[in-house]
Design a protein that fits this description.
The chain is an alpha+beta fold. The chain has one domain: Endonuclease/exonuclease/phosphatase (Deoxyribonuclease I, Chain A). The protein contains 9 helices and 14 strands.
């Protein structure tokens, strides 16, 4: 029977009025609680896994608005209706982004005769910075004895500053219904890995010298960020929220030198240092030559596929340290029903995981060396911002929306969209300080 997905409210600062709605209570339990008249801002991250084998492939696929994967991705976004969203793994190509917005997000998505799945979703502001993915180093970075300069192969991608079969593969973009302060955007694409104090540079286990996997001339040019790290200020009423966006390399696909695991650690550590005041962040230099981290009074949301689970997989301590940072809010993580169901169905390594499967955002193989399902996609608000609701779009298999995510191969992405709602007082983003009585 054709299935119809119910639409969420239209994108706006949605009045909550004095209704009962899902709120997170201290201790991480979810329940229904009455909330006085207020508004909310929905922020999301979504690894859309939208790319091709060669440069230009994705653009051709998206033309005409009929690509089935892109339609399902758009349907998910139309259901959740974030007002600010970070998209990971979409080609750095303004034409691709424009076509995806206009011909997919901008049109109600109906799949397989099911009828309208969601209302069009529009964003007035966008940012898509350059990426290190697919930018060739012209050096043998993977030390296989060859330098492959022809785009399109894994051998080419392995010798790039960030893994990619062509320039811009696996990039990221920010879409916002609120103004982006473009003049104050900071990116760290060119910051050198070696310039991070105490960097965990990959080590050749066959030598006694530390951190010597890469040749000295490669380290002189080697960027820390596998894609880009961006501080994107967004104006919400009379306040600014800094969206701290990134997509670190996965801590896998390497050897004893741990070149990816160590890079993942330090890419996440960049945000920990960025939030930790001048003593910890003074070494950071952005692409415009400005040094230092985020102002200690600034509001922020860390977003992205960080490729690290605080309990399971090959993650390092960096993600746990970021989650424990005193400037990061202590909120129950977004959850879903489908994540727990999928973990139980898959079994395998999932049965040995320590993390709560309801918080998983990655549907990964549990066979062989596969890590199983993991929590790797994050929306982490600053302490003081009031989180009133959160979730992961992973419906149960009997849910009317299940066809958007369940299936083999993946109908949309192997990642799930994670979102949070932040409280607003009228059109003003609320903080704990606003609750102090005069």
């Amino acid at each position: 029977m054709p299935r119809r997905l119910a639409a969420l409210p239209v994108p706006a600062l949605v009045p909550l009025a004095a209704v009962a709605w899902l709120a997170f209570r201290p201790g991480g339990e979810a329940g229904f609680a009455a909330e006085p008249a207020a508004s909310r801002l929905r922020v999301a991250t979504f690894n859309v896994s939208l790319y091709g084998e060669r440069q230009g492939d994705l653009r051709k696929r998206l033309e005409g608005g009929a690509d089935p994967q892109a339609r399902r991705l758009a349907a998910i976004l139309q259901q959740v209706r974030p007002q600010i969203v970070l998209l990971n793994e979409i080609d750095v190509d303004p034409d691709c982004l424009e076509v995806f917005e206009r011909h997919y997000l901008g049109r109600p998505q109906a799949l397989d005769g099911q009828g309208a799945l969601g209302e069009p979703l529009q964003f007035a502001h966008r940012l898509q910075p350059a990426s290190n993915t697919g930018v060739h180093a012209e050096r043998d970075l993977n030390r296989d004895g060859a330098v492959e300069l022809r785009e399109g192969s894994p051998a080419y991608a392995d010798d790039c500053w960030g893994y990619g079969r062509y320039p811009g593969q696996y990039g990221w973009a920010v879409l916002s219904q609120f103004p982006i302060d473009a003049a104050r955007v900071r990116t760290f694409r060119t910051f050198l890995w070696k310039d991070m104090p105490g960097a965990l540079l990959p080590d050749d286990p066959e030598t006694n010298a530390p951190g010597d996997w890469y040749a000295a001339d490669a380290l002189e040019r080697f960027p820390l960020s596998s894609k880009n790290h961006g501080d994107v200020p967004i104006r919400i009423g009379d306040r600014t929220v800094h969206l701290l966006a990134s997509h670190p390399t996965p801590p896998a696909f390497d050897g004893a030198e741990q070149r990816n695991r160590r890079r993942n650690h330090d890419e996440i550590r960049l945000w920990t240092d960025y939030l930790s005041g001048p003593a910890a962040s003074s070494y950071l230099t952005d692409d415009a030559g400005v040094r230092g981290g985020l102002d200690e009074e600034a509001l922020f949301v860390i977003a992205g596929d960080l490729n690290a689970d605080p309990h399971d997989g090959r993650s390092t301590a960096a993600i746990a340290e970021l989650l424990a940072h005193p400037r990061v809010g202590r909120h129950a993580p977004p959850r879903s029903t489908g994540g727990a169901v999928k973990s139980a169905r898959d079994g395998g390594v999932n049965a040995r995981h320590a993390g709560d499967p309801a918080c998983d955002t990655l549907d990964a193989s549990e066979r062989g060396s596969g890590p199983g399902n993991l929590r790797v996609d994050y929306v982490l608000p600053a302490a003081g911002l009031r989180v009133v609701e959160a979730g992961v779009f992973w419906p149960a298999p009997d849910d009317p929306q299940a066809d958007l995510v369940w299936g083999d191969p993946f109908p949309s992405s192997d990642h799930r969209l994670a979102w949070i709602d932040l409280a607003c007082e009228g059109s003003r983003l609320a903080t704990d300080g606003d609750l102090v009585a005069p």
